[in-house]
Amino acid sequence: MTLTFPPGFLWGAASAAYQVEGAAQEDGRTPSIWDTFSHTPGKVLAGDTGDVAVDHYHRFREDVRLMAELNLGAYRFSVSWSRVQPTGRGPAVQRGLDFYRSLVDELLGAGIQPVVTLYHWDLPQELENAGGWPERETAERFAEYAGIVAEALGDRVEFWTTLNEPWCSAFLGYGSGVHAPGRTERLAPLRAAHHLNLAHGLGAQALRAALPARAQLAISLNPAVVRPLTDKPEDLDAQRRIDALANRVFTGPLLRGAYPSDLIKDTASITDWSFVRDGDLAVIKHPLDALGINYYTPSLVSAATDNDGSPARHDGHGASAHSPWPGSEQVAFHQTPGERTEMGWTIDPSGLHDLLMRYSREAPGVPLYITENGAAFDDKPDAEGAVHDPRRIDYLQAHLAVAHQAIADGADLRGYFLWSLMDNFEWAYGYSKRFGAVYVDYPTQARVPKSSARWYARVARSGELPAA
């Protein structure tokens, strides 16, 4: 049976600046933490860097034409902070802003809505040198940066996201160290999480001050679907602990203006949370016009056993001797059963339905968008140069079907952004994992739409999901 999405449902695709732009040293851009991290031996697979990536900086017009051919209604991209404000403070570099002005103009000219993400993990290195996200000043600098970008693009961009996946910035960047800046500490991730929350609140204030009233403000989270291995009390407690660190550390202050009491108790041996100052929580609980949800796979946890001890295993976030779960390092992670992608992530669309219904309940009246969803597979051109990826089509079909079901079940879901538009630099995995609907031949930078891109184009054009 064909499933029809509501009129006006937004069909898009997403990318991130460091993953696609390249031009790492052009037009005044200075290093971000990901430039430093990727150039540090042993941090990124095969020594890959984002210096060139897929050269979107120079090829954006070609890429927008491709988006139009794929019937995209929206393109979600991030702004490189160090391209706009190289030291993370002070006046903007107009050449950097000009790139985003030109990109937005090109999108609008093609009838594609630009959706701006202000921060997708690429902190200017100078701000990290001053302490990074564990320091309060970084949140204050983010608000200044948000205002600069809003002044430059606010007359043409109506949909704004402050942060993408702050959990990764805080806990993978400062806890397990598998993401930039690669620090492995216990207190720093908690301080970073709070200052990222504060950056969202201060940034939202700056955006509201600079943007027309019609502008929509959002944040994109990667909430975890945390399931217990058994219904034993100790496994249910493991679930609660990880839910606090993965989800409620952000949604507590964002939606309710308070950090969860159990999270504070779980982390009492690490911090008294005195870095949370009077007035911070009111700033963080800034009214949202939309909530972005990124989903890939669920998590399965239990209390530690003799075979599954600390640090966490199978949590899907890269191998490290250091845990990204401060205060709950004893929780064991297990491989969920089922077919897996090239990332080793189990394909389980039910988790997406769970999230959409959860945040429909927890954020009533706030429209939801799936701002990332997709899969990495080992895509290769055939003898004729075509790239067929039926497993990705099956993945998208299944996840869009549960998204449609969530709408039927009452979720106010307004749009879906495929991750990702093109194959690109996949963080610590370098160029080894291909998430794109468009294949990129990295030596030549040639773009080849995969069969999934053509399939998604038909869905985006009709608003209808064909029967599996």
Q: Strand order across the biggest sheet?
A: 2-3-4-5-6-8-11-12
Kindly state the mean pLDDT as a whole number? 97
Structural class: alpha/beta
Specify the overall morphology.
globular
Describe the sheet with the most strands. Answer: 8 strands, parallel, barrel
Alpha-carbon Rg, integer: 21 Å
Order of helices and strands: EEHHHEHHEHHEHHEEHHHEEEHEHEEEHE
Give the % helix: 25-40%
Distance between the termini: 8 Å
Number of E-type strands = 15
Strand content: 5-15%
Protein name: Beta-glucosidase
Organism: Streptomyces rugosispiralis
Catalytic activity: Hydrolysis of terminal, non-reducing beta-D-glucosyl residues with release of beta-D-glucose
Keywords: Carbohydrate metabolism, Cellulose degradation, Glycosidase, Hydrolase, Polysaccharide degradation
